[in-house]
Amino acid sequence: MAPVLDATLGGAASNSYVDLAFADAYAANTQWDAEWLAFSVDQRTAALITATSWLETLGWSGDKCTPATQRLSWPRSGVTCQGLAAACTFIPYEVQTCQVELAFQFAKNPNLMLGSTGTSTVGEVKRQKLDVLEIEYYESGGGVINAGTKLTDQVPWLIPWLGCWVGGNAGQIRLYRN
Predict the structure, then answer these.
(1) Rounded to whole angstroms, what are the CA distances from 119 to 94, 115, 142, 148, 165?
(2) Which long-range contacts (CB under 8 A, 24 or more apart) does 159-164 make?
(3) Which tens digits make up the pLDDT trace of 12-62?
(4) For residues 98 and 166, is the Cβ–Cβ distance under 8 A?
(5) 20 to 30 A from 104, CA-CA: which of 13, 39, 46, 154?
């Protein structure tokens, strides 16, 4: 069955922040336009839906406009980013274009988020120390570390692209001195 894209703003069944026409128009101004359009409509649609699903894993600033009925995280209110106040009438351009850029990555590599296949005994960061710059890691038990569990591990440009629309200290390092 062909994927069905629903980009209804604040919709109860929405699965995308942008429609295919927006994605194709955005791609028309990129170096990868021909490569994007070479994918079938179904492939581009599925990539947009996948990109949205992964963007939903981020901690966004502000609040959903209608949390009881709104399926996706956007539109939002209660946040201002670089002088632009979020409103329930739009999704920020950075979020929309980031979705298309991410969809292009998924179209090229549908397995993008399967993660690392390497093994390591080092886990996530347990403790960081600024003075004398120490980092201590949790032990992972010698198993496989799946680097793909976090979207930002696979696409590090994501947080800088989205900027202050992403909340929860994502992509920020806070330094404290005792």
Answers:
(1) 35, 11, 7, 13, 34
(2) 161/94, 161/97, 161/98, 161/101, 162/58, 162/94, 162/95, 162/98, 163/81, 163/82, 163/94, 164/61, 164/79, 164/81, 164/82
(3) 999 999 999 999 999 999 999 999 999 999 999 999 999 999 999 898 999
(4) no
(5) 13
Domain boundaries, the chain: 20-114+152-165
Taking the C-alpha atoms of residue 127 and residue 152, their distance in angstroms, rounded to an integer, is 20
Query: Which residue type is seen at 158?
Result: L
The structure tokens listed for 88 are 């329930």
The residues, any chain, with a CB within 8 Å of residue 151's CB and separated by 6 or more, are 54, 55, 57, 58, 113, 158
Q: Report the alpha-carbon distance of residue 66 to residue 5 in Å, rounded.
A: 21
**Which residue in 70, 90, 94 sits closest to 14, CA to CA?**
70
Instruction: Map residue 85 onto helix, strand or coil.
Output: strand
pLDDT of 80 over the 80 cut: yes
pTM of the model: 0.75
